[in-house]
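Support request from a user on the community tier.

User writes: "When I paste my structure tokens into the form, the page sometimes reloads and wipes my input. The last time it worked, I copied everything first. Here is what I submitted, just in case something in the input itself triggers the reload:"
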């Protein structure tokens, strides 16, 4: 083994040791704990824990589905056990196929969804460090000479400098703050193939790739593209930038470009096939765009997002415990300064080795990575840039129009991940320049390591128990597994505060049974789920039970009494006594009910899932415009004095129909339905108007009391609430002759 190989092996072992220290707690408690986001980010959390549960469920579902039925990749993998009976519901989230494939060997050891998710985080961190190591090693190591050329001391010194620079890059990559920021988003943190693909791409453009390099490039590209659509866009755009930069600097050979294209083609073919169900759902207008053309943080905001900071500076400002507030991509000072050294050396053509061939390779890498950082900043800005009173369209806005699915990406600031992946590589190139100028002296390396370490945030990732009562979760799963086949509903089931917490908890618990459940959590909830959930707000009323049974074939309901008010839990216990439900289990924590079988079970499911409205509503009422006399009814409501902003607030509405015709209100399709229209009017005149479905019909000459879910305004304050009634007629709304409130 050559000296370089020995040094490289030691460096790799050192990097793995750093990974082990960084993620030691995660590995030790992989089957029981998630990351403790409150310890990392303080109490100002977003949806870190629910998102971790969601990704754990996705990873487990994809593996479970494919292993149980290998043909499921043909489409059935998208029809999951959540959001029953909605098909194709996996398209509400990332599919994580690439990550599931990488974690497949672990499935032989455990089916624990939490363990698979947590170990995927560790796997990603380790590979990100190792591939950053490989990339910088290739950038900096002297090109191979003749096979029989002697290894002189000068070459050995350069090789050791390259290993040292590569180790520094790997360590920087491991401790970059964005790695902590995105611990709850496996679809974003699994960007570990980016450095490897970039290095192999540059190698191919330089004409120095061999067959094995193209094979590895093809595998890495496919796995990265299939890890998430975010990462697919990040990889594609960054590689296009790298090719463009190298093409400007030197003209790559056509055969090298064709070989690179051939290596990447299988991955893009698989990406296209996996995207078909998503694009179909988007075409059906069931996946809304999340790209706001007006959103902009400006060039200053984008630069501030990745700007160098000292560890703990943002934590002190925010009162957080260890690192930084969520959604932050700041850069340690050592990484920023060393990256600047590499850039200056490339611009000034500083070549400490006096080898033009090797220096050219480092310059190509430096300028290509710098271009990726610039691209990252530009796309972080958003759709527009305000400049001297003019809103200039930015590239992100153009891409949202020309690239399929791009408009569904959330949060343009997440493009900071590209900068976070590029800067450690640039810093590694800077370390090489410094080390060569210092002639590889040990004291210089010690000083650089100490100074760089002081700018990082070196701590072990903390964890917290995934379940508040693991034994109870297992006991419930065992009871569910002992039941006959049939869909399950978990209570509480609310669209108000706690929806993400409850839905994600139900999703994760379903990995112990894989039973179809009406509950779920995702970034894009299906319309059927919102409709069913509104009906569920009226449980345990007999009409709500009957409707859920007819719409979904619901068989069982499990109630977590710990999350209910005592009076609500008492209502559920009373429902069994009235014959609406059959009680199967009851204790202080859990109630389990069976819905008595009925001939009409599931008879409305086809209508529920239909994309087109029927001639009549689910209740058989015509959808035609109502011909009503003046003063056709009366509206009354019991409104709480305080409404929570941004979430749905429950309000009791009483509707009197004085006319001779029934008013249709119960259907998933709004065509022809009567709905409640409500407006929050602020003191300054700002008004937000929305519609609230009734989800009940109003028979002629009768009064109906129903729950209306009113979404509070985005900003807190004092508002006047106004209510009236409208009917969907054609492409517009007709105001009903009912006095407004």
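"...and here is what came back when it finally went through:"
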């Amino acid at each position: 083994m050559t000296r370089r190989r020995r040094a490289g092996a030691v460096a790799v072992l050192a990097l793995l040791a750093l990974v082990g220290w960084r993620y030691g707690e995660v590995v030790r408690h992989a089957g029981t704990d998630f990351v403790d986001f409150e310890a990392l980010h303080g109490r100002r959390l977003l949806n870190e824990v629910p998102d971790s549960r969601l990704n754990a469920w996705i990873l487990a579902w994809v593996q479970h589905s494919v292993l149980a039925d290998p043909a499921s990749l043909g489409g059935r993998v998208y029809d999951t056990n959540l959001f029953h009976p909605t098909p194709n519901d996996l398209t509400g989230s990332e599919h994580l196929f690439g990550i599931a494939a990488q974690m497949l060997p672990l499935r032989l050891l455990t089916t624990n969804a939490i363990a698979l998710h947590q170990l995927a985080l560790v796997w990603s961190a380790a590979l990100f460090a190792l591939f950053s190591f490989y990339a910088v090693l290739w950038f900096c190591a002297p090109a191979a000479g003749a096979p029989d050329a002697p290894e002189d001391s000068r070459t050995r010194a350069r090789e050791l400098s390259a290993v040292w620079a590569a180790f520094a890059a790997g360590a920087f990559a491991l401790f970059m703050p964005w790695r902590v920021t995105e611990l709850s988003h496996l679809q974003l943190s699994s960007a570990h193939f980016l450095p490897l693909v970039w290095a192999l791409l540059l190698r191919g453009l330089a004409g120095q790739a061999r067959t094995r390099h193209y094979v590895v490039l093809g595998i890495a590209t496919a796995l990265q593209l299939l890890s998430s659509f975010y990462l697919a866009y990040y990889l594609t755009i960054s590689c296009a930038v790298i090719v463009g930069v190298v093409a400007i600097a030197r003209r790559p050979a056509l055969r090298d470009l064709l070989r690179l294209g051939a290596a990447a083609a299988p991955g893009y073919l698989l990406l296209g096939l996996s995207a078909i169900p998503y694009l179909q759902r988007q075409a059906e207008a069931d996946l809304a765009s999340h790209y706001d053309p007006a959103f902009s943080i400006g060039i200053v905001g984008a630069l501030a997002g990745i700007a160098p900071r000292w560890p703990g500076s943002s934590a002190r400002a925010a009162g957080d415990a260890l690192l930084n507030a969520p959604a932050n991509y700041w850069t340690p000072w050592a990484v920023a300064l060393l990256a600047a050294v590499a850039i200056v050396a490339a611009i000034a053509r500083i070549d400490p080795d006096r080898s033009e061939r090797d220096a050219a390779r480092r310059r190509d890498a430096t300028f290509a990575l710098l271009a990726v950082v610039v691209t990252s900043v530009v796309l972080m800005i958003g759709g527009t840039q305000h400049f001297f009173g003019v809103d200039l369209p930015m590239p992100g806005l153009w891409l949202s129009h020309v690239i399929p699915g791009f408009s569904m990406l959330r949060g343009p600031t997440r493009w900071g991940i590209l900068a976070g992946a590029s800067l450690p590589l640039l810093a590694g190139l800077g370390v090489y320049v410094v080390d060569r100028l210092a002639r590889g002296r040990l004291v210089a390396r010690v000083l650089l390591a100490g100074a760089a370490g002081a700018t990082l945030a070196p701590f072990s990732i903390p964890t917290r128990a995934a379940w508040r009562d693991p034994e109870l979760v297992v006991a419930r799963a065992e009871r569910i597994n002992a039941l006959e086949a049939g869909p399950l509903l978990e209570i509480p089931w609310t669209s108000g505060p706690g929806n993400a917490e409850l839905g994600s908890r139900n999703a994760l618990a379903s990995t112990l049974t894989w039973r179809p459940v009406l509950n779920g959590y995702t970034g894009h909830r299906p319309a059927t789920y919102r409709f069913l959930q509104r009906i569920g707000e009226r449980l345990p009323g007999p009409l709500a039970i009957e409707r859920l049974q007819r719409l979904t074939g619901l068989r069982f309901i499990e109630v977590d009494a710990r999350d209910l008010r005592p009076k609500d839990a008492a209502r559920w216990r009373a429902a069994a006594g009235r014959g609406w439900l059959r009680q199967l289990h009851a204790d202080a924590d859990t109630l389990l009910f069976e819905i008595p079988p009925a001939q009409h079970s599931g008879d409305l499911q086809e209508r529920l899932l239909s994309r087109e409205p029927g001639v009549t509503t689910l209740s058989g009422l015509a959808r035609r415009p109502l011909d009503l006399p003046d003063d056709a009814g009366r509206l009354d409501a019991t409104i709480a004095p305080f409404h929570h902003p941004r979430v749905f607030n429950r309000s009791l509405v009483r509707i009197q129909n004085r006319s001779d015709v029934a008013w249709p209100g119960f259907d998933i399709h709004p065509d022809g339905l009567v709905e409640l229209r409500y407006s929050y009017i602020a003191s300054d005149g700002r008004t937000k108007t929305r519609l609230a479905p009734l989800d009940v019909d109003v028979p002629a000459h009768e009064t109906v009391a129903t729950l209306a879910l009113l979404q509070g305004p985005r900003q807190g304050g004092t508002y006047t609430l106004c209510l009236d009634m409208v009917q969907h007629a054609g492409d517009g709304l007709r105001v009903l002759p009912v006095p407004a409130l």
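Agent notes: The reload is a front-end session timeout and is unrelated to the input. The chain has 26 helices and 17 strands. The CA atoms of residues 160 and 592 lie 66 Å apart. Escalated to web team.
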